[in-house]
Design a protein that fits this description.
By secondary structure, this protein is mainly α. It has a domain at 91-292. The protein has helices at residues 2-74, 79-90, 92-119, 123-147, 152-162, 168-186, 190-222, 227-282, 285-291. The chain starts with a helix and ends with a helix.
Amino acid sequence: MKKVLALIAFAGFLTFGMSTSTIAAQETEGTEQLDSAALAAQAAQDELDRMAAEDAQAERDQQVADSTALAANTGDFSITTQLKTRFIEGGAIFMGIVLLCLILGLALTIERIVYLNLSTTNTKKLLGSIESALASGGVDAAKEVCRNTRGPVASIFYQGLDRSEEGIEMVEKSVVAYGGVQMGLMEKGMSWIGLFIALAPMLGFMGTVIGMIDAFDAIAKAGTISATVVAGGIKVALLTTVFGLIVAIILQVFYNYLLAKIDSLVNDMEDASISMIDILIKHKVTDSAFKA
């Protein structure tokens, strides 16, 4: 009886062991199948990303080819056409921001050029008119000449004549003080132009960094180095830098012109102010008014 029970127990142990082995083998096989499916899905996703990058690059190339073909048909290979083509190749985001810097910088520059040109005065003619007015009609006639003349020099002369009753020292102080006010008005907006000069190449360099990052991301997704995949990111990187530098160069030229114009006007104001004080002393305007 004991032997029969031992045989039954041994048979049960063998049956349980075989069942456990079968279940473990099935679980291992299922895990391997899941891993294989995950790898296949990742490979499919990488292939889709690579195809999307290639399609985007092909679309940009097609736009460039269409622009080039249009220029070839019309016989137009000017600098403007080349700039338009490169602008499309560089992408809309950073190229648009760099273009906005150029537009705003040029708007401020044109406004300053118009203002400074309108501020230019023939100081010799104005001094002659003031001296004639002082000789014929006194201080009031000279102030009327200044009121009818446009520009910062005439405004400074008016302030000096308006203080002529308080003595020559007060005339000098008022001329110096109001000259500083006029100089501030002439330099208005120059800081914003300087900002756009610094901002344009910085945005270009940022586009360069982002373009290089996109190029390396494309390489990582493709799993291999392909000229088609890498060329798009590198082209964007270089074009944003080039356009940023072009914008900075254009604005810098106008900025230096404006600085030279302001310096010229300031020198004219200083020379004319000294001449006006000499005219007042010559005609004894301040002395007679002060004694009275």
